[in-house]
């Protein structure tokens, strides 16, 4: 068979799970989209350096500009012990990168009139109508109920049960929040006993809000979360390797997850014994998915293109703007993790958003939005530069090493 003519490559098709075809992602030489190939070579050098220093065993970097892939390279090993190379179709645990997908699902239902952004949680789960708020003086009643938009922007007052507030953390523990053996609706009923840490809308706190949002999606759509994702998002976008577990026939592509401690890497989760080999009962909209670079960059290109990829439109442009502009109410503050305040960083309905420059991530740019996952996966999008960047690795606890090492290099590579 003759090789296809180069100019036809962007229009070739690839098979997805049910036999339907999805367009291949268009790939170009960096110079065609205003990126310096010479400057991008520094990305290769930096990744080699991080691997040599044992910050990671391997990773993937994808850079797209003007809707086209200009750089898509794997580096190092996906399994150091077995000496298996990182490959373009390697499967990663993406943890909190799941959140943006769940937010898109909810916004699709919002466009269809099946849920409102200001709808209270009790509309979907009546048992949550009388939630309480923890204060220094004890539990108090709600001034208003948490809403769907509170869940998306993390202003509902929910946490991950690691607040160092004994009464709150014990309530999360007793309720078995995020237990993989529970269904979403069961988790929601138990959530009625969990106190919020502030009045809804009064502050920003990262937590299980997007898992709760997954429950809202199930009620509003009448479908299980995995079925909705597959039918409404993964299938249309051609995300053939994304799901809540890794099927047996794909385990060989699954990367090892490593723990980084004392400047050394050790195996944290091996593919052949991983919990991700089993389809979980609890479908975590906040952190449960596995995916590949090809799959996830499709999702990001859809968002960066105003809700559309190829012929498939998932969201309207005005809806995407709600995701990619700061929606935290006045007084809610910046994105904060413990003592770490990310000054200048707000949150939209699904993504963190840089509102102004600060000493936090100084290589970033105003208008940039993105997020990451617990195993140090990350992505960012700069609308002004028409730039999408995805970095994937499997190292815990979360590290900004790769993002911060590459961000300045990639921005410096822009020539127009």
Shape: globular
CATH level 3 topology of the largest domain: Beta-lactamase
- Measured distance between first and last alpha carbons: 39 Å
Rg from alpha-carbon coordinates: 21 Å
The major β-sheet equals: 8 strands, antiparallel
When the domains are counted, the total is: 2
- Second-tier CATH architecture of the largest domain: 3-Layer(aba) Sandwich
Descriptive account of the structure:
- This protein has helices at residues 37-52, 98-111, 148-153, 166-175, 184-190, 209-221, 225-237, 293-304, 317-324, 401-412, and strands spanning 13-15, 21-23, 58-65, 68-79, 84-85, 92-93, 132-135, 138-141, 257-261, 264-269, 290-291, 308-309, 312-313, 335-337, 340-342, 345-347, 352-354, 369-372, 378-382, 387-392, 395-396.
- It has an 8-stranded antiparallel sheet, with helices on both faces. A 3-stranded mixed sheet has the order 10-9-21, with no helix packed on it.
- It starts with 12 loop residues before the first strand and ends with a helix.
- A hairpin with a 4-residue loop joins strand 16 (345-347) and strand 17 (352-354).
- It is an alpha+beta fold.
- It folds into 2 domains: 6-92 and 239-412, Beta-lactamase; 104-221, no CATH class.
- The radius of gyration is 21 Å and the shape is globular.
- Helix 1 (37-52) runs antiparallel to helix 10 (401-412), helix 2 packs parallel to helix 6 and helix 5 (184-190) crosses helix 6.
- The longest helix is centred in the first third of the chain and has 16 residues, at 37-52.
- The chain contains 10 helices and 21 strands.
- 27% of the residues lie in helices and 20% in strands.
